[in-house]
Amino acid sequence: MSKTISLLGATGSIGLQALDVAEKLNYTVAAMAAGSRVEPFEQQIRQWRPSLVAMADERAAADLKVRIADLPTKVTAGPDGLCEVAAIPEADVTLNSIMGVAGFLPTLAAIEAGHDVALANKETLVAGGAVVTAACAEKGVRLLPVDSEHSAIFQCLQGRPPQGKPQKLILTCSGGPFFGKTKADLEAVTLEQALAHPNWSMGLKITVDSATMMNKGLELIEAKWLFDMEPDAIDVVIHRESIVHSLVEYADNSVIAQLGVPDMRIPIQYALTYPDRYPSPVKPLSLAEAGKLTFFAPDHETFPAIELCRAAIKRGGLYPAAVNGANEQAVALFAAGKLPFASITPLVSRIMEQPWGEATSAEAVLEADRESRALLLELAEA
Ligand code: NDP
Ligand code: MG
Question: Are strands 74-77 and 52-55 parallel, antiparallel or unpaired?
Answer without folding.
Answer: parallel
